[in-house]
Design goal:
Layout: H1 2-8, E1 11-12, H2 14-19, H3 25-37, E2 41-46, E3 49-54, H4 57-65, H5 69-85, H6 90-99, H7 106-122, H8 126-142, H9 148-164, H10 170-183, H11 187-195
Antiparallel strand pairs: 1-3, 2-3
Helix pairs in contact: 1-4, 5-6, 6-7, 7-8, 8-9, 9-10, 10-11
Length: about 200
């Protein structure tokens, strides 16, 4: 059961894990009490929130890695869906949906990864935005249902980030996006790439 907590990260929401059905409430809370008593997890009361955190990252990592890849992906999927219902930030949702991409969540992974990257770009966190757009591009490349228009839009955003960062590769990226848009006779996308 602590393995499910490890999927959330170093810090975790015990009530969310109960909500996703990682365990029944009583069993999980008993185990959590034992983990706190053993010094594996610490509990902090912060106002109206009760936070839990693994004492050592190595413990969390070991618990995470001992799960099969399929079990980890399914747990990320369940956590992402529960967090989505709670209107969690796009960056958090992107992380969990990307980790669940192999179990049918690639489209939502792209959606939230782009939303998180757009938010980063809007605050001039250009490196973070570039990383997000590159992750979205990789996901789109593996997603059979992706469209050329989606790839052009992401490549345009990558080019814009590179330009903002002063990277010389921004021009070839934007020209390639404009050329792809031209092949589709998509004037607005071609203009967006050339003006980014």
């Amino acid at each position: 059961l602590l393995s499910a907590a490890a999927v959330m990260g170093l810090s975790f929401d015990a009530l969310l894990l109960v909500d996703v059905g990682a365990a029944d409430a009583s069993s999980f809370l008993d185990l959590l009490d034992e983990a706190v008593a053993a010094g594996v997890v610490v509990e902090r009361v912060e106002g109206l929130q009760i936070a839990h955190e693994f004492v050592h990252a190595l413990t969390r990592d070991a618990l995470y890695e001992e799960m099969s890849a399929l079990r980890r992906a399914r747990m990320h999927q369940q956590i992402a869906i529960a967090l989505e219902r709670r209107d969690a930030p796009a960056e958090v949702l992107a992380h969990h949906f990307r980790a669940a991409a192999a179990v049918g969540e690639a489209a939502r992974a792209v959606q939230y990864t782009l939303a998180a990257a757009d938010a980063a770009l809007a605050t001039f966190a250009n490196e973070q935005a570039l990383d997000g757009y590159r992750q979205a591009a990789a996901l789109l490349g593996a997603l059979p249902a992706s469209t050329p228009e989606q790839r052009i839009d992401v490549d345009t955003r990558i080019g814009e980030c590179l330009r903002r960062l002063g990277h010389p590769d921004y021009l070839p990226v934007l020209f390639a996006a404009a050329a792809a848009a031209s092949e589709l006779a998509d004037g607005p996308r071609m203009a967006a790439a050339l003006l980014a």
